[in-house]
């Protein structure tokens, strides 16, 4: 998994064991391989590349992913049946009927010498869906017992049960993409624990501007693209000249405000919400969510670090498992697709 936060390549060795009555799973091992500055620059500017250069990056990234997996197999003694790779999203435009994740499955398969499944979102988009969020597929099967599942990644997204006892899921607003953008203006990869944000002042006019860009739309299926984040919050924040700590404080509060508005508008209450993604380590953001949640009967549960760091990798592994079993993802009601779709393109190693 390569997420929009551009932290690095997340690789997890996952095992699934299913019978008629139960599904058991385990993350046997996992590691994040940080992106160096060259990879960060390539991936962060991928959407502006020419078609020729983007196709070259697709192949090179596939080689890199396959080589990293092969090294882990050799160094750690991993035994794997197949690779499920989400790749790195460059374009996600479901309203125009397409989504694009780079990291060529053919190159991954060749380098690692394992069957490889990629392109998980395309079938849902082809059926008129948003192709996102996919997290509910794993949430309901692998993490039962919660009323909501909040992922604080580059983009914040939610899967929740509403008062009518139906599940809804959508992308809410930018999250770590915006916070990391501001941190990099101070030559930091991220604001560790939200410390700088906790020390900044709130700029109310900016906070209201940010909130207004991502209004609640009734929980309709929606998948945000990196391009949309760039043209909204990133461009807006990049134009501001205020103190960076104040901008971090204001943006963090805006994220908490938007998330609370979206969740509290639909979720059945009281609710326990499982929080994963890198933002779960942002103590300041979590404290704001907890404080806001107290007014609405919302409790945010922070799981173990392995779940926080590798839940998305586990999701992709589970999608690969479902694909190999020939099973649909059962998410069309959440994405807006006309019918349930499976997904994934299989590249054979031999």
Cα Rg: 19 Å
Q: What is the CATH T-level topology of the largest domain?
A: Nucleotidyltransferase, domain 5
The rounded distance between the terminal residues' Cα atoms is 24 Å
Q: Give the spatial strand order of the biggest sheet.
A: 9-8-7-10-11
Runs in which pLDDT lies below 50 for 5 or more consecutive residues are none
Largest sheet: 5 strands, mixed
Beta strand %: 15-25%
Q: What CATH architecture of the largest domain do you see?
A: 2-Layer Sandwich
Overall geometry: globular
What structural class do the secondary elements suggest?
alpha/beta
The CATH class of the largest domain, by name, is Alpha Beta
How many distinct domains? 2
CATH-wise, what's the superfamily of the largest domain? ATPase, nucleotide binding domain
Topology order in helix (H) and strand (E) letters: EEHHEEEHEHHEEEHHHHHEHEHHE
Number of helices: 13
What can you see in these coordinates?
The protein has 350 residues and is an alpha/beta fold. The protein folds into two domains: 8-130 and 309-347, ATPase, nucleotide binding domain (Nucleotidyltransferase, domain 5, 2-Layer Sandwich), CATH 3.30.420.40; 135-307, Nucleotidyltransferase, domain 5 (2-Layer Sandwich), CATH 3.30.420. It has 13 helices and twelve strands. The protein has helices at residues 37-44, 51-76, 105-112, 122-126, 135-142, 176-184, 195-199, 204-212, 226-238, 244-264, 283-293, 305-324, 332-335, and strands spanning 8-18, 23-34, 83-84, 88-93, 98-102, 116-118, 148-152, 155-161, 167-174, 271-276, 298-301, 345-347. It has a five-stranded mixed beta sheet, sandwiched between helices. A three-stranded mixed beta sheet has the order 3-6-12. It has a two-stranded antiparallel sheet with strand order 1-2. Helix 5 (135-142) packs across helix 12.
